Amino acid sequence: MTIAIVGGTGPEGSGLALRFARSGEAVIIGSRDAQRAAESAAELNKQVDGGTGVPAGAISGAENRAACESAEIVILTVPFAAHAETLKHIKPALRPGQILVDTTVPLAASIGGRATRTLGVWQGSAAEEAAELVPDGVTAVAAFHNTSAEVLQGDSPVDCDVIVCSDDKEAAKRVRNLARKIPGVRTLDGGKLENARIVEQITALLIGFNIRHKGHSGLRITGLPPTAYEL
Amino acid sequence: MTIAIVGGTGPEGSGLALRFARSGEAVIIGSRDAQRAAESAAELNKQVDGGTGVPAGAISGAENRAACESAEIVILTVPFAAHAETLKHIKPALRPGQILVDTTVPLAASIGGRATRTLGVWQGSAAEEAAELVPDGVTAVAAFHNTSAEVLQGDSPVDCDVIVCSDDKEAAKRVRNLARKIPGVRTLDGGKLENARIVEQITALLIGFNIRHKGHSGLRITGLPPTAYEL
């Protein structure tokens, strides 16, 4: 499977690239600047082994739109200020059958406000905005909002549940199947894409904890049967 | 300490009453109907021991407004449809120095919609609405949104972190101190009262998990130092 990470030179994108490459997937880091993408990919390739000893997938770099062309799954990890613009830019490269995974949180920090507050998005959430901006046949899935970029960039298991929201249950399962490859991650069906409204907001709360306590917080859902985490 | 639980005959209020009585606090169950409050209190008193062997506080019952008169902490556990009306009703009994703990989630179910969706509240959250409706000198604190009523009503430890939001740090500490008395509960400083917007919404997400998986979900925050849970 080939995974494109649009805005993949940022901390969340780099962390996901590293983890997916370690699980054997081919990853293309996307950036507005192809040269920067290539440099970031070269740097990340050096860290892929991470002591796992598992044959790793390779990380390559490309301009954002080009990165999307050969990918089955496109993961969007840009700041919210660049969200709509980036989606419009990559749109010509997207085609039916692809999955667009939106990790974006509409933090007020993206327009100079606080990272502990969010902006109202007309569609309800960044993920629902994304669903409106992709071509017909491309499925929007919301995931990875609450996984700490710092933890993803490290070598330790990720002590966080990934809540996946989509109106397409099969696409959600494919993304859950991908997320489960990150050591430590459990995944949950978060229901319809509209529930991304809540999952996105949680990140602002976690950022508040991080600021107050100098941590890299995540969350675990308790009280559910083990089958909730199975596909 | 005396704790009044307004709307305390409901599942969340009964569960909190039971847990606080077990930790030795005096609890007054409030209801619109004094007779119903008394019956509920009598029923709960039978369950207080819960195998703990600890000398338990007594649970009594009173009409909602009367329940507030002698309490240091008033906990509001009414459905959102009764939220503003109940606050206006108890207002004459509230006095400076009291803490009003709002546990209310503005679920769409309160006006015939889904329990997995929330309503927009003009002030931002039910807790901020409560802050507007209490007399000067009464401090609003948001807490206990994510603790399952069914789990609270049982005898097992509560596998959930209680996120406490308030603009008054001392009041937040008092409520965290109370919440910590529930076995299993850890508490976190959720920051300002405005953050109740997020903590309230999380409940709708948890209800979705409960529906899909027949569980009684809660949440734990990960990745923070142990000091984050200390007072």
Q: What key phrases describe this protein's structure?
A:
231 residues; alpha/beta
Write a concise synopsis of the structure shown:
The structure is a homodimer of 231-residue chains. Chain A is of the alpha/beta class. Chain A has 8 helices and 9 strands.
What does this structure look like?
2 copies of one chain form a homodimer. Chain A is an alpha/beta fold and 231 residues long. Chain A is built from 8 helices and 9 strands. Chain A has helices at 11-22, 34-47, 64-69, 83-90, 126-133, 149-152, 169-179, 196-213; strands spanning 2-6, 26-31, 59-63, 73-76, 99-102, 139-142, 161-166, 186-189, 218-222. In chain A, strands 3-2-1-4-5-6-7-8 form an 8-stranded mixed β-sheet, sandwiched between helices. In chain A, helix 4 (83-90) packs parallel to helix 5 (126-133). Chain A is globular. Chain A starts with a strand and ends in a 9-residue tail after the last strand. The mean pLDDT of chain A is 96. At the A-B interface, helix 8 and strand 9 of A face helix 8 and strand 9 of B.
Fraction of residues in H or I helices of chain A: 25-40%
Q: Tell me the major beta sheet of chain A.
A: 8 strands, mixed
The strand line-up of the biggest sheet of chain A is 3-2-1-4-5-6-7-8
List low-pLDDT spans of chain A.
Answer: none
Proportion of strand residues of chain A: 15-25%
Biggest protein-protein contact in the assembly: A-B, 39 and 39 residues
> Overall 3D geometry of chain A?
globular
Structural class of chain A: alpha/beta
Summed over residues and divided by their number, the pLDDT of chain A gives a mean of: 96
Number of helices of chain A: 8
Order of helices and strands of chain A: EHEHEHEHEHEHEHEHE
Distance between the termini of chain A: 19 Å
